[in-house]
Amino acid sequence: MTLEEFSFDRDGLIPAIAQQHDTGEVLMVAWMNRAALEETLATGRVCYWSRSRGKLWRKGESSGQEQHLVDLRLDCDGDTILLLVDQTGVACHTGRRSCYYRAMRDGALVEIAAPAVSPDTLYGKVP
Amino acid sequence: MTLEEFSFDRDGLIPAIAQQHDTGEVLMVAWMNRAALEETLATGRVCYWSRSRGKLWRKGESSGQEQHLVDLRLDCDGDTILLLVDQTGVACHTGRRSCYYRAMRDGALVEIAAPAVSPDTLYGKVP
Questions:
Q1: Distance of CA A21 to the CA centre of its chain
Q2: Chain A residues lying within 8 Å of B29, measured CB to CB
Q3: Who has the most CB within 10 Å: A39, B1, B26, B65?
Q4: CA of B75 to nearest chain A CA: how many angstroms apart?
Q5: Measured between CA atoms, how close is B123 to chain A, in angstroms?
Q6: pTM score, two decimals?
Q7: What's the rounded Cα separation, in Å, for the pair B24 and B47?
């Protein structure tokens, strides 16, 4: 697999949108480097590059909220990826299904979705 | 409008996903600077920042394929935007509805959608 059509930025990263394959809900955006992309394609389990932690991030490795790859698409310029996934549970670290839970209303952001699960439960702080 | 929750990168940009509001189709990703975001919110017509041309890019200004804003959402980290839009015609400069027309199949990218309109028609090279 050459991946030559994939264009990584000056940090060696490419943004990837995760969309729930059957409902169309946009869940999150994260970043991949070449290793994360190769692992995702090889295993079918979505792996990102964590910019904050500086290491590969197998989505769900600490929360159990895994993403399984259904289809991987590349855009016309080759510099963004669309992942069609099957999301276990919730995608957002706040416990919400999608990270896009804030919407502009009359010039201000308001929350339009409540957490489905407590972050403390997700990350093992509550047994 | 303060937009203080919006986190722009070191180039002053934030990536924005455009999704067709009613079908859920992910159309494209482009970038906004603060001025593009403010204009989009003020006018309801989506305006990006063109990194290649180094100027504001009112989507559809040369092709007629405008995007009208239905809702604007910000993610949990404040560093990516989801635009729910009503797309006139096609979003992709290749004449396809979505920029994500290539999919990985057996380790190689294949085209899964044909142009709906010729790029020459879109950009006025054909009367």
A1: 13
A2: 15, 17, 75, 80
A3: B26
A4: 4
A5: 17
A6: 0.96
A7: 20
